[in-house]
Write a structure and sequence with these properties.
- This protein has 78 residues and is mostly helical.
- It has one domain (3-75).
- Helix content is 72%, strand content 0%.
- It has five helices and no strands.
- The protein has helices at 3-14, 21-37, 42-52, 56-65, 67-72.
- Helix 1 crosses helix 2 (21-37), helix 2 crosses helix 3 (42-52) and helix 2 runs parallel beside helix 4 (56-65).
Length: 78
């Protein structure tokens, strides 16, 4: 199981009010990234954001303010 899948599963089990930031980000990206940005992979975006050291708040701000840069997170992970 990938780290993203584990974070998503754990976040759903724990609930948004008690999950870690990585779990929260996985849930947010899974639920809204494709709706807001189009043809993106929530998993690749999550991996890129984790690689860049971004928080869930920073990722959501990036999606709101600069969708192209947010989509670019898909290519940030090694």
């Amino acid at each position: 199981m990938s780290a993203y899948s584990e974070a998503l599963r754990s976040g759903r089990k724990t609930g948004a009010s008690r999950c870690t930031d990585a779990e929260l980000m996985a849930g947010l990206l899974d639920s809204c990234a494709q709706v807001l940005l189009g043809a993106v992979s929530p998993q690749l975006m999550w991996e890129g954001a984790m690689h860049e050291g971004l928080t869930s708040k920073q990722v959501m701000t990036l999606i709101r303010d600069d969708p192209r840069a947010a989509s670019g997170l898909m290519w940030a992970a090694p």
